[in-house]
Amino acid sequence: MVELARKLPLPQRRFPASPVLLLLAAACIFLTVESLRSTIFAQLTVAGVATGVVYGSLALALVLIYRATEVINFAQGEMAMAMVYVAYQLTLWGLAYWEAFFLTLAIAFVFGVVTQRVFIRPVQGRSVIAVVIVTVGLFILIDGLVEWKWSANQRFMQAPFGNKIYHLGNVPIARQDLGTIVITLISVSALWAFFRFTKLGLGMRAGALRPAAARLVGVRTNALLAVGWGLAAVLGAVAGLMTEPAEYVLQPTLMQPVLLYAFAAAVLGGLESPGGALVGGIALGIFLNLLPSHSWGFVTSALELPVAFAALLVVLLIKPTGLFGHRTVRKV
Amino acid sequence: MTALLELRDVHARYGPVNALHGVSLTVDEGEIVAVLGANGAGKTTTLRAISHTVHRDGDIRFAGNALRGGPEAVARLGVAHVPEGRGTFSELTVWENLRLGAYTRRGNLKDDFARVGSYFPWLEDRRHQQAGTLSGGEQQMLALARAFMQRPRLLMLDEPSLGLAPLLVTEVFRIVQELNENEGVTVLVVEQNAHIALQLAQTAYVLEVGRVALSGPSADLQQHESVRRSYLGY
Predict the structure, then answer these.
(1) What is the distance between the alpha carbons of residues A70 and A62, in angstroms, rounded to a whole number?
(2) A1 and B72: CB-CB below 8 Å?
(3) Which pTM value belongs to this model?
(4) Whole-angstrom Cα distance, residue A273 to residue A269?
(5) Which ipTM value was assigned to this complex?
(6) What topology is assigned to A47-159+186-318 in CATH?
(7) Which of A2, A14, A217 sits opposite B150 (nearest CB)?
(8) How buried is A123 (Cβ within 10 angstroms: 0-12 exposed, 13-18 middle, 19+ buried)?
(9) Interface contact B1, partner A, CB < 8 A
(10) In a structure prediction context, what are the per-residue pLDDT tens digits for chain A, which is 332 residues long?
(11) B225 within some domain
(12) Domain assignment present for B185
């Protein structure tokens, strides 16, 4: 029987369905070819990647929490926004931008852990709806607290990357876009390495997949849930801090559109797939950036959001599990 | 011999439903103990009461101390529980499953992997395979290997023969016996297959509706009239 099982053509490892990969490859080729043909196209594509990685990293935060707690954290964007205000306050107190940046990430981690302990854990055992409602409540609470402390007026923060423009051939690339891409990819890779290579990361994955079995091998799942919220908050803070320079002003509504796009990106990627969230975010970013200038005038920037969601709907009609969602092979 | 595990008048319930009505049993250090019984007799619940994944009352002592805390605390004391369904992390690789087995331990695991490899030579080649794609027999072996990585003082197995072909059942029990003899692991095994369980174990308990109906050395139980008729079928 063991021999027989070996001969069966079972997948050795999980790969995303190949039509999806082909589609992505085709999209990459199309983008490259068009970018070589048109400078503006290339410029818009790079800018699209920069907005896309930000959507992607907030989407990744959503996926992280979805996998661990099985709910969408509606407060994810507001938590990120609050962290940008913290960074802003730190720069007001005289810290340099990057000092404030890293200190904020540390604060974000603690903030995430405390949020899980204080607000989520008491309702965790009840129903999904209860947790969802708590996250909606957190959304309102954080919004209110930020407005109370810093008011709803627009604030201005130091720009981390300046206004320098690089030229690649004759394609102008903003230093800010490049910086955003690099910083976001570094934080996402660091997170990936944490989950892939550390014991704690392995324990967190096991706890998210099978909490009961994980506890039997000694994983302290409850403590690790809080760590997961902390990491998600850090990732959200990175997304927030990278959104702020793109928007030029800081106000309490900073992350609300970003959260919507991040949600779309997460669903597009398959909601359970971290890689999918990132790819979904980048795809969405490029799509939205190219749309106004390449839809023969049909789509103005005011229509971006509805068009993005219409596209999402089409994808989900064709592949309901999202691009990288899959059913796991299981045998009894 | 000293008692490694002692249950005295243990009750357990699922919500309002009582599953154990005062079970007492003793597992001596270095011994293999089998718990037999029909479906619903409370075999699985007994193991769950020990690892505290079910609501329980009564006195449970492990290595002389009262067993407290949740399942993760029990695991950290050196109890490896391979639950019903084997507790395989099917989405993770074989290697990651083994790493999780050693989750409670620190330090270098190289020697342990080598030792595991000596019992399960095929694991090495398939360490990057997704555990869910292993066959039932292989998953049972992986569960044993994972439990062994924990270096447990007590190994608790819940129906290791379930769903396996007879040849594989023999193989699994042979390895359990080897782990017991070579590594000095104490084993508490819950089994429907009374025949093979009585061959393996030195002591056995028969549960009926949440109580110990019979207990004693395996050799005696094998001769026992009602055990033979109800569980051995001859």
Answers:
(1) 10
(2) no
(3) 0.86
(4) 6
(5) 0.90
(6) ABC transporter involved in vitamin B12 uptake, BtuC (1.10.3470)
(7) A217
(8) middle
(9) no
(10) 444 444 444 444 455 557 778 888 888 888 888 888 888 888 889 999 999 999 999 999 999 999 888 889 999 999 999 999 999 999 999 999 999 999 999 999 999 999 999 999 999 888 889 999 999 999 999 999 999 999 888 888 888 888 888 888 888 889 999 999 999 999 999 999 999 999 999 999 999 889 999 999 999 998 999 999 999 999 999 999 999 888 888 999 999 999 999 999 998 888 888 888 999 999 999 988 888 777 666 667 777 788 888 888 888 888 888 888 765 444 44
(11) yes
(12) yes
